[in-house]
Fold this protein.
Amino acid sequence: MKRLGITMMVMVMLFGLMGCASGSGSSEPTVAPAATVQEESSQPRYKEQAVSYPEGQVFYSTYDANGNPLVYLFDTKNYTDQHAAYEEYLYKDGQWEKGDMDELNKILEKEQIASLSTIDKDSSGQIYGLWTDLTSGGNTKDSFAMYEFTKNKAIKRNAALYNGDNMLYQYRLLGDGKLCGMYADGSISVRSINDGAVEKELGSGYATMDIAGSRVFAVSQSGGSITEWDLETGEKGHEYSAELTNQGVAFCQDEEENVYACMENGIFQLDEDTNKLTEIVNGSEMSVNALKGSSEVMISGLRIQNGVFFVTYLLSGENSREYKLMSYAL
């Protein structure tokens, strides 16, 4: 349990490096409030409902390739000082379904990997995990590693973790052995996980980014704009006016390829005709809005399923870490 506690504290640190848009170091991007006003819509009101996680200690909350909420829990019965162990649950049709983690847990035990910071699957189901040295404080390049878990072994894939001396700050798996990453200097690129080769450069000077469909949406360091990039061509697309803060922003796409952005003051649709954000869910209807301006909250995920929005956010304190999963339906 002591190791679990240390792991959670390190994960909070890593989330600050990989999933948030704030930081005190000069090399890390930040998002400042902007004065742009979003357009309010006359959409009907959505009702917020908390989705309870399976019983246990949540390690990491994300989504699968189809947009279903996916959560990993510590497998406390099999977690030891020498190796980690996890449980997986997928939220589908209103209930959590337990997945099979035997293969991954066997690899963790075989390789004596004591902890992971994230677990992610690409569109083909290939599992990747980030590891951090619990004793180093993340001060050297040897303090972090990306593992590809395959064929009963863990293969280190560290080539894409750095852009020069700038560490990976956020990433999204693209499939086919590629990731889209934003680095501590604010640059975004598509790279090979295997050898780190750069396939596309998608601009720089950004604070945070996310992927919706085949597009990357990158937030300026001022927080006043969102820039669209095409993943297939690498071309720059629309630029939207925004009003973002350092609580993070997440993006998703529906079946009609409409794109939505979630922040603590609401869920908005990106309007290609006006290049502005149109309100869909008012922030007053969202519990995360009550934490507006808090450095302890970070919005980490947004998906839409059959007209229902799912929002994941993380509450982190000095020695605590708690995920929240909310749904918004008419």
The CA atoms of residues 206 and 220 lie 5 Å apart. The mean pLDDT is 85. The longest helix spans residues 2-18.
